[in-house]
Amino acid sequence: MSRKLFLIPLLLAGCTVGPDYGGPHMVANAERAGAQFRRADALQTVPQPPLARWWTSLDDPQLTALIDRALAASPDIAIAEARIRKARATYREQRGNQLPSISATGTAIVADLPAGSLALPSQGAKSDRISAEFYNAGLDASWEIDLFGGRRRAAEGASAQAEAAEADLADVQVRLSAEVASNYVTLRELQQRLVLARRSAELLAQSLALVEQRERQGASSRDDVVRLRTELSRTQGALLPLEGQIAVTLDQLAFLTGDEPGAHDAALSAPAAIPALPASVPIGDPASMLRRRPDIRAAERRLAAATSSIGVNVARQFPSISIMGIIGLGGPSIGDVLDTGNVSTLLLPRINWSFLDFGRNRARVDQARGDRDEAEAQYRKAVLAALTDAETSLSRFGNQRESLLSAYRSAESARESARYAAQRFDRGAVPLTMSLDAERTALAATQSSIAAQAELTRAFIALQKALGLGWGESNP
Questions:
Q1: What local confidence, expressed as pLDDT, does residue 284 receive?
Q2: pLDDT category, 1, cuts 50, 70, 90?
Q3: pLDDT on residue 83
Q4: 425 pLDDT exceeds 80?
Q5: Would strands 320-331 and 344-352 be described as parallel, antiparallel, or unpaired?
Q6: What is the band of 336 on the pLDDT scale with cuts at 50, 70, 90?
């Protein structure tokens, strides 16, 4: 009969209180299979699964090397990885809390005390001191039986938090790859703008020299000279900010890749073209995007952890049973530690129930439910923000492509005018200053087209980030 009574707590240990997590509720119709992006342009995008390593579609080896370096050496990656290790260790600790703990102890007591110390009787009438020795070795075991599943819920929550930390690492990879690419495009844009600005300054200097020569000959006014000098000073002054922005961007790239400032100056200082976009951009569908985005995955896992926390606090409202056992060997001589005839055992079952706490534990349950409701709202917010981000990025990408086409047309018209002015100058129909002015106008239009190209590429990068790309098994 006593054995059956002892088995009752073990049977009750299969009970788990608190709500079971069944996953989040559907937030938007875009989560359904077959849904499509509303702002996608069929001429620019295709509903095919996108590449995790999207930057390889830009076919720029230097950009690929920078992103690979960042994903391997960035401090942000190291921080996220450390948090994963911590969360996994917490999960292992919570799993271990469900099992008994066993410890070994050894004790040696050698005493030489005055007679009557510690209320001990003297050993003889003539003895004024007491000598005693005691040796013991044993095992202590304790186990709190998880009657209502509070510790199992704690382990569930810790597991969900560990998975959330893994999703946070993936989110860092998404943001980091996009930030490196965006800074790289900005660097190439600034370098090309600097080249064109220097060429424009050279043309202005030539025009100024010609106007000054004509002024000396009485064929031009002083106002033309002053105007050109002012414009030349303004153009030359604009070179310094561009050079400073290039240095800042190089240092930012070094920071993102986990390197010290100046680490990439030698490799990236030479001007190069802005990476060319692929002919069409695969975007998949909203449902797969929502499943892929790591920030949504992290929000969902934190919702699961918050749900488990309710069960942890509900279990505290019920009695807890713990069992402590002691096995020891010992006696007045050290040899008694090895004498199995001196075995002593002790079994101490204990029940604890805080049945009157004036509502404190109920308040903790309500707090846990509030945390769960907040986590659910955060998940809904993450889904809606992701859909908005993707649709906005698709719209901006389409509009920016139209802006680039317009800038290309303007630049081509300006270059055609410059070629026409150069031909007329060769025939002696117009002065050289007019031809140089037309060429400077063409350079300005080309600068505008470069800025539009860079903006389109950054819009492409923002789209890849919105789609949740930049992490996966193919990443380092």
A1: 92
A2: very low
A3: 96
A4: no
A5: antiparallel
A6: low
| pTM for the full predicted model | 0.83
Percentage of the chain surpassing pLDDT 70? Answer: 89
For the stretch 130-156, pLDDT in tens is 777 877 888 888 888 888 889 999 999
